[in-house]
Amino acid sequence: MSTPGRIRLNEASIRLDSMPVAGRDVAVTPSAEERAAIAAQLGLGSIDALEVKLHAVKFRGGMRVTGRLTAAVTQPSVVTLEPLRQEIAEPIDRIFLPGGEKQYAGPANAEIFVDLEGDDVPDHFEGNEADLSDLIVETLALAVDLYPREPNASLEDAGYKPDLDETSPFAALQALKPKQD
Fold this sequence. Notes:
Elements: E1 13-15, E2 24-28, H1 32-42, E3 46-59, E4 62-76, E5 83-98, E6 123-125, E7 129-131, H2 133-143, H3 169-176
Parallel strand pairs: 5-6
Antiparallel strand pairs: 1-7, 2-3, 3-4, 4-5
């Protein structure tokens, strides 16, 4: 069952029950329509290219997925609003385990220990097949520059001058700074 707003990519799933001992290679190259849907979901101008090469092996009753995501993304500069192209190359290394839903979560107000230095929490899948669409979209979202701009671009170059009032709180702080000889 698909959740509204979630993108499902063709060929982005792996069946655990039919995986060879040596593992399985998966190559995902989303179509133009799928790339447009991902771009809209992430608020990007466009995704010009997206290719994901993965290798899955059985691991602790589930699977470990490693590989690489490469992409070319175009989005407007935050300074000049001119389109900028960003090339992305991100490694992928995730563990998927079956059955993420627990029947009993524990008593209310129970303390929970979170190890911030430990390994990432594994992802879960139901049944014999893991859909890797969310992994791909998440990896791309985390790799995209949120505030792209041209090298050495500034607001002053775009015609915007900051309005610095000498009576600002920072000017008052400057008066408190010791004078150097």
